[in-house]
Amino acid sequence: xxxxxxxxxxxxxxxxxxxxxxxxxxxxxxxxxxxxxxxxxxxxxxxxxxxxxxxxxxxxxxxxxxxxxxxxxxxxxxxxxxxxxxxxxxxxxxxxxxxxxxxxxxxxxxxxxxxxxx
Length: 118
Description:
Blueprint: H1 18-30, H2 33-53, H3 68-73, H4 77-87, H5 96-106
């Protein structure tokens, strides 16, 4: 029996397969795992809420980008709320509960665009 190409680190792609795994490790060291988990949970919550607000499947949500780092850079919750409301201008359902929930969830979060120094 022969091993499939690359199975034992030989052949095309064998050695390259380890590259992405190593890079992923660096990312989790660079950024706090807890913050990454919080951000992932937040993104899942946002998608769930948007599917409810737009009454559609995830793939059918209108093209809009809620940039959490951008919101965190803003001075006040009023400014953040205005920005999110602006993004949801096409939504026909009330958005106040979503905006309020989003602001509660991002309060205390850290930006991911600049890694923490240890």
